Known about the structure:
The complex is a heterodimer of chains A (262) and B (989). With 262 residues, chain A is of the alpha+beta class.
Amino acid sequence: MQQMKRLLVVYVALQALFALSWCFSDAEPGPAAGSQSNGDRFKIEGRAIVPGVKTQDWISTARILVEGEEYVGFLKTDGSFAVNDVPSGSYVVEIVSPSFRFDPVRVDITSKGKMRARLVNYIKTSEVIRQPYPLQIRSSGPHTYFMKRETWGWTDFLMNPMVMMMVLPLLIIVLLPKVVNTNDPEMRKEMEQSMNMLNPNPELPDVSEFMTKLFSKGSSKSSGGNKGSRSVAPKRSDTMCTSRPAQGGDVDPNSVSYTYLK
Amino acid sequence: MAWLVVRLAISVSLLYTASAVFEDQVGKFDWRQQFIGKVRFALFDTHSQASKKLLVATDKNVFASLNSRTGDLFWRHVDKIGPEGHIDALLMYGQDAVVVTGNGRLLRSWETTVGGLKWETVLDTGRLFMLFCVNIRINWCIKLTVSTFDHSFQAAALVGVQDFVKYVAVLKKSAISLHDLSSGSQIWVENLPDSDTVQYQTIYSGGNGLVFVFGVVPNSHIVIVEYKIEDGEIMRKKSVEAAWMSSLESSCTVISSGILLCVDQITQSLYTLQLQSAEQTEIRQIHLQTLDLEVASGFQPVLTSTQPNPAQPPLSEFFLQLSPDHHILLQLKDGLIAPLRDFNPSYLAAFATSGERTVAAVMSPKNDTACSINLFSADTGRRHLDTTIIYHMDPNGGKPNRLYVHAFLKKDDSVGYRVMVQTEDLTLTFLQQPGRVVWVREEALADVVTMEMVDLPFTGTQAELEGEFGKKADGLLPMVLKRLSSQFILLQAWLAHLWKLFYDARKPRSSVKNEVTIDTLSRDEFNLQKMMVMVTASGKLFGIDSKSGTILWKQYLENIQPDSVFKLIVQRTTAHFPHPPQCTLLIKNKDTGLGNLYVFNPIFGKKSQISVPALPRPVLQTLLLPVIDQDYAKVLLLIDDQYKVTAFPSTKNVLQQLQDTASSIFFYLVDSSQGKLSGFRLRKDLSTELIWEVVIPTEVQKIVAIKGKRANEHVHSQGRVMGDRSVLYKYLNPNLLAVITESTDTHQERSFVGIFLIDGVTGRIVHEAVQRKARGPVHFVHSENWMVYVYWNSKFRRNEFSVLELFEGAELYNSTVFSSLDRPHPPQVLQQSYIFPAPISTLEATLTEKGITSRHLLVGLPSGNILSLPKMFLDPRRPEVVSEQSREENLIPYAPEMPIREEWFINYNQTVSRIRGIHTAPSGLESTCLVVAYGLDIYQTRVFPSKQFDVLKDDYDYVLISSVLFGLFFATMISKRLAEVKLLNRAWR
Lengths: 262, 989
């Protein structure tokens, strides 16, 4: 029993000396690696780095959060930090800054104060990918809070399906009459045939034709007073243009007579 | 591969649901105000003449640097909540500020220009004691470590040697330590003698190589211990008889070259004691009567001295406060105390030093609404000419209670000064001569307890238009005439508006300011601008314009207990013109439970003249009924601890209506100490009867939170269309209560969180869920047919979201009306859980006018960001395997981890510190939800959960559209002309 007591006393004394040595190293300035045992409370240390940015530009808005706001630390002017009074356990250490993004790190502290840092993995929580300790947390750049506005460009405009749908037929309209000689009688015959194919029932009045006739009558009446009798001929070709745009922009006088003969 | 598919699906769905901020929208409809809290320490940087720094430490554990010219923050550091982050002392020397935090746990030195930490030291004296005693005697030592565990902070002081401040000394209950100012390293630490009997309270150093520690044994004697700075050796220790002494802190101070001065109310005397002379062991008593002074009865007199430089002894002048409004400036000369100037009446007095000159500023009442502050030279008590500052007291505010003076030397070597006045209602006012208010900070807003958003009233014309629809027909012709006249009024208003626009356009831009005042307040066309009524913990009410953040009215309610419970109820909105809107605030004392009502107009902040029922018994529950009285005010029922009901307003009309509807009015009460939930029904005579009772045994679990659904919430669709075109109907029970319990056993293997969904009318438990190996704090949202809650999974050490959705099934039981009493089928409950890769501070859901817009969850994070998370991600029907039907339904495949994207942070870099609550309110636009986040800061913004589908977008390209239109127009004109020419030519051919 006596021996037990003595052992206990020696143990306590050793423990105390241990604490003393730690405390003295704590008091020393400079980067003291490792943890300082304060009772059963420990210290998480590390350094945050934002490449290319001076520390004084961002440290005043940044904080170190351990497991939410359970433990809070602040950054020193050289970018290093220490969070005091953390009991043993496993914690997610995060540097929060409104301007820069830092990846969180999980720090495990054993009951003896041994520290280990690893990547945070919420799905496989036991997976260990070691990170350096004392922590070296490098910023991965500024936050991207904003969505990009859709800017208007010519390529967007041209690649728009609606525009494509409009432009392609236009090209056909312009180019086709140039390629195909419409004055060739054989060709004309062929076209007439295809026209008849399109209009399977010649007796049935074409709706568009009917409409154009209706409107051209009205408009010719109103414009007739202004322009006199001569304006009748142009009006006719006008109707032609609207009713059969597919035949080509270049209006053929023969085709006009054809329509009216029908 | 499957993972890739999931990713793809998520990214595709994001295209539809993203509600992000665009960079050009910054500050367009959002604003943030930052606060610090009640100032406990404030120090002006007197180091250089041009410095604008004002260092403050507050009761919210905030240490900040303010710009004294504008009142804005240079930087701010927010420490942990609670006693561990409590700032005990703030000292400043040169560019550095030394802060003692956490009841003497940490000593920090801050670089004040940058706002970064210079060094940080743990003041771990408890452990160090042990090693001191190890050398002496071991057995005693073990006992000591236990007994010295309590080392609470007492005082801290800067210590100078030979005109140069090098150290900081920290006094704790049983130890004193000295630290180097440049590195924070500990020079020495000493155990205080007899610390178990003597209460050591203050510390003093006069720059002569010694540190004095003062302790007191109440009603017995004072102990003075003298330490040598170099090595902490005790030079001298003496105890002086002082039977009248109970506490040193407020009644004693050191003046002149080391003279301890104390004041005592009972003996009506001043006491002086030479510190350094060995011969004087008796304290000298000076009766106040000999100075023709008297301490007001019941008032603890206060001594205020000043030590301009810590390396030099303090001045021999000091203030003695004899009553709340009586100060006197006294001087100690050749061992005699002589009054220099008597300030009667005077509210506040403070010393300030600039260079070699020390002045005293005294605030005295001028008239009922104003105070005057004057400057006096400290050594003579003479008044400085032309130094009066008039301070106008806010009639709706509190009395001034702290005065901070910033003195500076002017070019002509006279002393100029600025003052910062703190009032009871936590307003900080910074004034300069001759009384110009430089800035005002309303620090009560750092602690918002509850808030409401109230619609703004209509203007006269708008009201006229509204009135037209309100009245029923007087015949066709008058109605037509009325219509025409109101249209004419509108036209007139529009013309006036145009004229104003034109008029303003000619003026330079800077002079055109849209000042919002209480008189120009009116509802905008989309009802986006509202009045934010905020209730703060200090008992000050604010009315804030939601568009600009301007405080439009404020009202300080006096005699509010520090931790009262507030409940704000909107009884009448602005919709009932000409009746003014009406808000009722129930203030409940936390200890006694007694409450009282404060009725006011939320737009103007004026107290209403309506008579308020007296509440003699503690209020247990309040209930806002949809029943309205003849003045369109909703009826508020207050239930007291004898289950008696008081109605407010309680007119005959209301009582009649209550009697008619009494059988359908139910309410519930929660007693979390007994784990009892009980439901009551109202009787015709306004008594109540118990209908149901649910007991949740308190040995196992305790009720931590209970929430119903929001009354102003609309659900647009009754069900969800499934992939096979059938409809899954929602279980929309308006009486459903969500009850959250936590286990009393906190062991991580056995702790759990319980969720009960209880019908508030019948007491039927609709659903019950237990989340094992989980603990709180639980944040949850209960809305529509779903409930989302967040808990901490203690096994995997992560936060998890869980969603519960209730469905009736493919058929509705009663599609016309919902009755809790007639529900034969229990609802189908679907649940799914997800990992949330971040801690959470608060949770709320968006709310829109008609509930058509998809919902988002607003998650407040400890980093200060607010995440807008689409509810789509929290859908228990998210399939694990993608099928044709689920794709048709637009369901995102299940993924365990919830994504957090920075684009979803609705407040970008405008972080809200210590976010405590988020308030959401619908606007007039269906797409838009107004959001106010409050905590230490206040942030207001608008969110568009389904994008802005009902208004043109901000980036709507007017230029492109109009240029295309004009282009087409001209193209047709030109081509028409060309065609005509061509035809003409052809006709001639």
